[in-house]
Structures are given as C-alpha cells and as structure tokens.
Give the backbone structure.
Amino acid sequence: MTDESTGRIALAADSAESQVSDIGSRKIDHLDIVLAQDERARFAATGLDRVIFEHVALPELALDEIDLSVPFLGRTLRAPLLISSMTGGPERSARINDHLAEAAEALNIALAVGSQRVALEGRGGRGLDLTLRQRAPSVPILSNIGGAQFVLGYGEDEAMRAVEMIGADALIIHLNPLQEAVQTGGDTDWRGVLSAIERLCANLTVPVVVKEVGAGISGPVARRLVEAGVSVIDVAGAGGTSWAQVEAARAPDPRQKAIAELFAGWGIGTARAVADARLACPETPIIASGGIRNGIEVAQAIRCGADLAGQAAATLKAAETSTEAVIAHFEDVIRTLRIVCFCTGSASIEALKTATLVDPPNFLAGK
C-alpha cells in the first residue's frame, strides 16, 4: 500500500470519526433544548382539544375493573401506551434508556428507542444494546433508524443489526424531511425512500413501523406506506416538540435560524393526522404521538382512531431523574385515562373508540 493510499484511508477514518462525534454532539444539544422548553408551550395545535367527550352521569361501571389492555406486536399491554422514541447515541442516553426500559417493564407498556445511527456507525451507543432487553424482557421494544439513511447506503443488514442490537420486536423507520431541510448539513435527497421501505418490509423478519417526528403523516401517505408493506403507522403529528424550532436554536447563523423558525408551526395536527390515517388505513394499527401530555389527551387520540398513544417530551424530565419518576408519570396517565373511560361509560379501550362526543369536529364526522 502506498503512502498516498494510507493517507487517504486515515483521512476517511478521521472524517467518519468526526461525523460520529458531530452526530453525538447534536443529539446532546437536542436533549438540552427539549428539556429547556416550557412543557406548556405549543408551536402548533394538536387539535385534540376539539375532541370533547359527553359526560355520562350514570356509568354503571366499576372504575377499577375497566379494561385498559390492548394487543400490540403479539403481546398484551396493560394500557395503550408507548414510550416514544426519545434519544439515541450519546453516553448520557444510557441512563435515560435504562430508566425507560425498567419503567416500561414495570408498567407493561411498549418502548421505542431513539435513532440508532450513532450506535450503528461508531461510538456513543451506550444504553442501546441487549441490556435494554434484559431490563424489559416482556414488553414490545422498537428499534429505530432514519428513513433518509436508506438512500445513503443503509440496507437490510443495518436494519437487522439495529433490531438485533437491542432484541427488538419491530423496526421504526422515522421520517423527518422538515428537520433535515432546516438542519445544518441535513440529509435532503429523499428520492427512493419509499422504495427502500418497501424492500425492507419484504425482507425483514420483524414488522416495520413508520413514524414522523412531529409534522404528521397524511392519510394518502399512510395509505402508500401500508401498500408498501408497513405494519404500523405512528402519525407523530404537530403540536408537540417542533424539530424546526429545535434546529433554529442550534442554527449557526441568523439567516438559517430565521428560516427554521418560520416552520415552527408547520405540520398536520395530531388529531387530524390520526383521523385521516384511520380513514385511509382502517385495518392498520395506528399510534398517536405528538404533543400528548396526559391521560385525557391519550383518550382523545384513541377516540380519533388511534390504537396506542405515544409520549416522548412529556416523559423526558422524569427519564432524566429515575425509573421511579417515569413510573409515577405513567401511573398518573393511566389513572387519568381510566377516569375518562369511567365518565364516558366505556368499559374498555375498544368501547372508548366509539364514546359519544359533543359537537364532533369535522375530521371526525360520522365517527
């Protein structure tokens, strides 16, 4: 090997290591920015406040006997809840992922990890290994890779590595075109993403879940994904964390920041996204995420057509604290959801899906 070849290899290795370091640093920035935001702040409307249940003064139910359990990925969950994709990569995430996995197991709810790109490409994947499955042996765990990566060289091998790395039951492919478009050095060539998803669905041995990251999935896009073989849709609608706003906070110059901020309220509200996805994909499991903060909003999302509701940002402060804090958070969510069922005369989650509404919004007309 020539000195010139050796030099090129060394430069490539340095470049790859630098990229991994940059991604890890970005993930840490994301955590800090989301944690610093006022949890009451919304850059867009979820639309869930338009879903108003009619109160039932004579429920004829026992509160503690209401059945909140739901099937998901071949298992039965205690409640229709998913700890949504939150963080991957940096060492700091190991503590967060440990807390989330232990809480998911204690509560018997599902867990989705954040992007595994850093873990797949280099260092910084602590907390994203089989210890996660050891901490949560009996609940569904979902692995996670960005859709844009599948037109940049990723394929079936990387997808299965992500699944096997944590003993996952399914693979999430997350779609974040807006975030990439406003991010410094973002991946902005999305030609071929759908074809790549279709190939993965045909070849992987686990179900494929596709989710947005906060701008929503429309009914027509949900239908195209299901026709491509996707098993579950997570709409991840607008109304929660605005990744355009997060990237605006990280922008290196004022012009880029100003452009990113223009898109802070962009997207399809969670309620509308769920309703449209349900209409377009009547037999497909639908996850509602994006700005869901409490058990009433979980109930509203289910009434819009969701099978599960996911929380991420609302859980992050608890996840930084302890397993017990995460458990306490979700116990409150579950208790609130149970009271909604009680006060709507719904003996189960299936019954809640058809609970009577006051002046249903137009996107729920006829439901």
